[in-house]
Design a protein that fits this description.
- The chain is of the alpha+beta class.
- It has one domain.
- Helix content is 25%, strand content 24%.
- The protein has eleven helices and 16 strands.
- The chain has a ten-stranded mixed beta sheet with strand order 2-1-15-4-5-13-9-8-7-11.
- Helix 1 packs antiparallel against helix 2.
- The radius of gyration is 19 Å and the shape is globular.
Length: 332
Amino acid sequence: MVHQYIDRTTSQVVTEKLIADRAIQIIYSTIREKSRLLFDLLTSARTSDLLGFFNYDNPLANTSAHLRKIIANLNIDLDECVEPLERMDSPRKLFERKIRFWETRPMPEDPAIVVSPADSRMLVGSFSESSIILLKEKFFHYEELIGRDKQDWIGAFQGGDYAVFRLTPEKYHYNHVPVSGCVVDFYDISGRYHSCNPAAVISLATPYSKNKRTITVIDTDVPDGSGIGLVMMIELVALMIGDIQQCYSVSHYDNPLPVRRGLFLRKGCPKSLFRPGSSVDMVIFQKERIRFDRDILQNLKRSDVVSRYTHNFQQPLVETDVTVRSPVAKGI
């Protein structure tokens, strides 16, 4: 079955070229059902690191011909990159490329606007029973995702809305801050390295609350903040993602800082880097504090798009391809 999404810039329906799709389907259907031990091994940190090395750090892959093939296959725009091609002399350096986001990813000035944290494919949902975008226990278990011992945050975000940003291998893999505010909590939760391929997501119940993840809680009701309450940003590892490097920079990529409690984060600035593979960002909002952009909500419910999520969850669920720092919601 194919998987399609909406290109936000053109409004066109696009069929996604899913990398290693057949292998992922075998792992998450046949192997998961018949050999739990093998499945656990394939979704472990060791296997993720091994696949990451083979695909991104293998010295045999550092040839000019191979790199140009990667660039062509993934349609990487070299013109927006900070460094010239001759300095990006490995698949890893291509994956971890920096771009001139201050020129190529413009950002709205309104402080109440929430921006996308990544170049990604976006879905939205709600924990509220009265919401038209209620999605319950599809992609994650709420308390498990946040951490069962984090009762303050579980209560603070109860009934709120959320957005899922799925990064694919060809994407720019720096994560940017979606709102402005002060970090009030920052913690890691251990977990697996499940693939973010839609075939894996629909085969495994609540996969996003099972992967290793880093959680940042931001208070936006502070001076110079976005003024939309508490916002939780969750960065999830996935297959071939070995690390999430926190590297917040106020000016381009200069003088990166580790994220910590008390640090003020400015909207649109680089926050972290996935190293490397496909991965997911999630942003969770408090109840009745934001409204998602109309086109994203309209795309979500389209019935003329072939989405694996729609097929398996028996309700229209269509992703919108968004760019980092572009508007996706606004405070109310």
